[in-house]
Amino acid sequence: MRKDKIMGKIFCLMGKSNSGKDTIFKELMKDKDLNLMPIVSYTTRPIRSNETNGVEYYFINEDILNEYRENGKIIEERKYDTVNGPWYYCTIDDNQINLEVNNYLLIVTLEAYKNIKMHFGEENVCPFYIELDDGVRLERALKREKEQQNSNYDELCRRFLADNNDFSFDKLKSCNIEKFYVNDILQECVNNIKSDILNLIN
């Protein structure tokens, strides 16, 4: 009897702001043992001085976003009412994802994870929640904001406070996310995630 083809998986990194998601993402992406492909999300927020279009995000305006909506290309979409007005983040059906060929890694919010799981199937989408002490996160956030050409401390504070609601224990539990990857020591955290990914794909 022919066995069904084993499908690839989408590994979703998530966590509060400045918990180290971007650094962990980069470490996992360059690991040849994992051989993961990135999924680059889209956003209408302004690009930061240390970002590159098409790497962290595809930076688009609302006119382009509306075209994707009209063409039914939105997999999931989130809106944030920031101190600078509404910013949209979304995952687009733009032929980046082929689960018959590859395993993927992307950074998401909890809400995005739920919608991606609904779109691709629970068996194909795996969450990895990054945890870090709030005091350390705030120190990192302040340092990063100081390095920006146009620092925006109001938005930093809004985002920091919103994280407590967006990633509350009850919301994580409702998504069956009970294992946390503590990022006190970066390499240990990366190794723990790598080990679990290998167990899921081998």
UniProtKB/TrEMBL annotation:
Q: Which reaction is this enzyme known to catalyze?
A: GMP + ATP = GDP + ADP
A Pfam family assignment: Guanylate_kin
What PROSITE patterns does its record include?
GUANYLATE_KINASE_1, GUANYLATE_KINASE_2
Q: Which UniProt keywords apply?
A: Kinase, Transferase
Q: Where are the transmembrane segments?
A: none
**What cellular-component terms does GO give this entry?**
cytosol
What family is it from? Belongs to the guanylate kinase family.
Q: What does this protein do?
A: Essential for recycling GMP and indirectly, cGMP.
This chain's protein is named: Guanylate kinase-like domain-containing protein
